[in-house]
Structure formats: structure tokens, C-alpha cells
Write a structure and sequence with these properties.
This protein is of the alpha/beta class and 444 residues long. It folds into 2 domains: 282 residues, NADH-ubiquinone oxidoreductase 51kDa subunit (Rossmann fold), CATH 3.40.50.11540; 71 residues, no CATH class. The protein is 29% helix and 19% strand. The protein contains 14 helices and 17 strands. A 6-stranded mixed beta sheet has the order 1-14-13-17-15-16. The protein has a 4-stranded antiparallel beta sheet with strand order 2-8-7-4, with no helix packed on it. It has a 4-stranded parallel beta sheet with strand order 11-10-9-12, with helices on both faces.
Length: 444
């Protein structure tokens, strides 16, 4: 019987129309714009100057704290300016602008395609290298990976879960990685196991990716301590807490982290990046991005250099369809609408979705009919309609008491609401205000 999480969940149309498209390399743009804040935590500090020459893989901004991440150049060329841009979040961020001149990589990067299976580093050395390479969670959260590998002294990691679920509709970048880079992901998993000191790892994959499941099942016969677990197709199965519940049966407590139940979760893309960092000495400066949509002429999965403008992916996919209503960075459930094609690809860009106008229009909101559908589908057991109402009335004490900070912002509540209420929009607002209140309270 296929495993899954117990609370809530929905089944939106999968629309994995690019799943059969092999990974391609997107050509390098003339100019890249590389934000220095591509991760949860403090922005990185720029260490290059205007007119400075840089190479592919060179450090251009260094982490400014424990929860931060190094940023590396994705191209070779000249730094033209250091200025602010508006990123996919809608906020201004500092960025390094580089004019591309050739494609000269650091000589220390191993560019061979031969798979290196030998693990030569200790746990501490792996964590250090991951930190130096600027690796963050590539499933969308962009939490610095070295922080997850630094288990608190009063806790113990017992199991590593590799997230190959990719439950977000349309997106297929992880799926293609699991088909084309499976052994590299397995070696990356072994490296993560070594760093954490665990003897067991499970790669969780939803059952709509049978080819990936079969791929790993065959491959893992040669590796001890790692197994693949097929999971029932249900959104948001890729959430950390939902994945832990589905595979281990353990439930992360409210306000707690996965390590509280002995689990550590990393995305398959992150495992691949760890492989490249440790075994190939390659920092994180490119990633696989899905470009997709029902009207897109050429949907595909591209390896894209960080800092490449979104417009270049759209041009490569056949141009901007006339019936496009919105451009989404990510998927339709958790992605963010973009207001410019100049916004650059970052470490957290898993896909670019062009939504047709007929599907992108927000319907008129009506009064809540108390149907409780939002409660039924919430994977965290929250009451979304109450959280929205309390936020509207600015009763943030109630919002905090009703565990708004536990919301994973999956959008399931808004998806099922028959009154088309913008539940998630208000819950996000409530989270932001409660988060501010908690920080102020803790600082006193």
C-alpha cells in the first residue's frame, strides 16, 4: 500500500507536460544579474568591485552569518555595476551585474562527466565544503544546507529523507534530475548521510513518477542503507512535515523542526548540488528550471546559469504566448506572480509557468458559507477561515494562538474554497504580523 500523510491534502490537475523533456543547457546571456540574497537568512556581502574580472565559480559575495550563503559568479566577464533590482518577491535586493565575456571556469572545477563515487572527506569537511559552495535547499525554501547539516548537540539525526516528490503541478525539474542524474543523487545522499552521521536514508517519490522509482530501485541494489519509497499522489506531499509523516509515521510538533523527531529532509536537487560541490569542486551557480504552460510552444527543462533573465527562458520556449495572463516563478500553488521579464533566475527558481489569461483571473470573493472545506484539506490541521477573519480584524493574538506560524502556505484552502475567498493571502499577512510581534517580544 502506498504511503501518504494523514491530514488534509488535495488533488489538483498534475499538468506535468514537460516530464518527458530531457534536460538541455540554456545558452549564456550577454549580461547576468546575480542577487546577493537568494536564501533564507542574512544577505551575502559583496566582495567584488566594479570593472573587476571574474570567472565561472568565483566567489563574488560571502555569507554574512551562520544562516546565510555564499554567492558565486555563474559566468566569466566584467563586473559592470553593483546595484539594486526587484526580485521575484517584489522587493529590492542588492545584485552584482556582470557582462559576459567568454566562458572561463575556475581551473579547480572538475568538468568531466565521470561519476566519482569515492567519499574522501570527513563529516566536518563535508559540511564546510557545502557551506563554501553556497548550497541551499533547491526545493523552493532556499534554507542554507550547511545549517541543516549542523545538528544541535542536544538532538540526534536518525534518518535522512530525500525529497523527490515534486507535488507542485507543472514542475518537472526534479523528475528529470532523478531520471538523468540518479547515481549522482545517490552519491550526494551518501555524502549527506556521512555529514549527519546517519545509517539510513529514504528517497521519497510520488507514484506518478514510476520511471524514477524504477530507476532508483535498480540502482540502489549496489548501495547499502538507502531505499526508495513510493508515495501516494497527494498535494502537498512534498512539504517537509508531510513527507516525514508519510515515510516515518512521526509527527513534527507545532513550532518544531524535523530534527525534533530525528529526521533531516533534503531535496533531490540539493543532493545533486552536494555531489557536484564535494566530488567535482563545483559551487552552486546553475540549476535545472522548468519552462512550461499550456500555451507554451516549447516547454522544456533547462540548466540555467544563476542571474539569467526570465525573458531568455521565454524566448527559448518560443516567445510570449498571446493568451498569457500571468507569469509565475514556481508552480501555480506556491509560486509568485512576476511583474517583469527582467527578473533573474536564482537558486530558488524551480520553474517558470506561463498561465493562460482564462485561468489566471481571480474570481469575485463572496461571504464564507461555513462549509469547512478549508479545514478538511489543511495538511497542518488549521482553521484557515478563522485565521483570515482574525487577520482582517487585526486580532493578532488570536492569529498567533491558532498557530498561524505552522501554516506551510500550500494554498490548499484557497484552492477548495467555494466562495473564492483569498484565504492564503490573508494568512500570509497574518504570519508576517505575528512573526514581527514574536521577534519584538523575544528581543525585549
Amino acid at each position: 500500500m502506498l504511503k501518504t500523510f494523514s491530514k488534509g491534502g488535495i488533488h489538483p490537475p498534475e499538468n506535468k507536460i514537460s516530464a518527458e523533456k530531457p534536460i538541455e543547457n540554456l545558452s549564456i546571456p550577454d549580461i547576468v544579474t546575480i542577487p546577493v540574497s537568494q536564501h533564507i537568512g542574512k544577505p551575502s556581502k559583496v566582495i567584488v568591485k566594479r570593472r573587476e574580472k571574474v570567472k565561472v565559480g568565483q566567489l563574488i559575495a560571502e555569507s554574512s552569518g551562520f544562516i546565510s550563503a555564499n554567492i558565486h559568479s555563474s559566468v566569466s566577464g566584467t563586473v559592470t555595476k553593483i546595484d539594486s533590482i526587484v526580485d521575484s518577491s517584489g522587493y529590492k535586493r542588492q545584485a552584482v551585474f556582470i557582462k559576459v565575456e567568454g566562458d572561463e571556469w575556475l581551473e579547480t572545477i572538475d568538468r568531466s562527466i565521470e561519476i566519482n563515487r569515492k567519499i574522501a572527506l570527513s563529516a566536518d569537511e563535508i559540511v564546510k565544503k557545502v557551506n563554501e559552495s553556497g548550497i541551499v535547499g533547491l526545493g523552493g525554501a532556499t534554507f542554507p544546507t550547511h545549517v541543516k547539516l549542523s545538528v544541535p548537540k542536544d538532538m540526534t539525526a536518525e534518518i535522512l529523507l530525500i525529497n523527490g516528490v515534486e507535488c507542485e503541478p507543472y514542475l518537472t525539474s526534479d523528475h528529470r534530475l532523478m531520471i538523468e542524474k540518479a547515481e549522482e543523487i545517490v552519491v550526494g545522499t551518501r555524502l549527506l548521510m556521512t555529514a549527519l552521521g546517519v545509517e539510513k536514508a529514504v528517497i521519497g517519490i510520488e507514484n506518478n513518477k514510476e520511471d524514477a522509482i524504477n530507476n532508483f530501485t535498480h540502482l540502489l541494489k549496489e548501495y547499502d542503507g538507502i531505499e526508495v519509497q513510493a508515495l501516494k499522489v497527494k498535494y502537498p506531499q512534498g512539504g517537509e512535515k508531510q513527507l516525514i509523516k508519510a515515510i516515518t509515521g512521526r509527527e513534527v510538533p507545532s513550532g518544531g523542526l524535523p530534527i525534533a523527531v530525528g529526521a533531516v529532509v533534503h531535496n533531490v536537487g540539493t543532493a545533486f548540488a552536494v555531489y557536484e560541490a564535494i566530488q567535482k569542486n563545483k559551487p552552486l551557480f546553475e540549476r535545472v528550471v522548468t519552462i512550461t504552460g499550456k500555451s507554451v510552444n516549447y516547454f522544456a527543462n533547462f540548466v540555467v546559469r544563476i542571474g539569467t533573465p526570465i525573458s531568455k527562458l521565454i524566448d527559448k520556449s518560443g516567445g510570449f504566448p498571446d493568451d498569457t495572463g500571468k507569469i509565475i516563478s514556481g508552480g501555480p500553488m506556491m509560486g509568485k506572480a512576476l511583474n517583469s521579464l527582467d527578473i533573474p533566475v536564482t537558486k530558488g527558481t524551480s520553474g517558470v509557468l506561463l498561465i493562460r489569461d482564462v485561468e489566471s483571473k481571480r474570481r469575485k470573493s463572496h461571504a464564507c458559507i461555513r462549509c469547512a472545506k478549508c479545514i478538511t484539506v489543511c495538511p497542518m490541521g488549521l482553521e484557515p477561515y478563522v485565521l483570515m477573519t482574525a487577520t482582517q480584524k487585526k486580532i493578532f493574538e488570536r492569529v498567533e494562538k491558532d498557530r498561524v506560524l505552522d501554516c506551510i502556505e500550500c494554498g490548499s484552502c484557497s484552492y477548495v474554497c467555494p466562495s473564492d475567498r483569498p484565504l492564503l493571502d490573508y494568512i500570509r499577512l497574518g504570519k508576517a504580523n505575528v512573526g514581527r510581534i514574536v521577534r519584538e517580544r523575544n528581543s525585549n
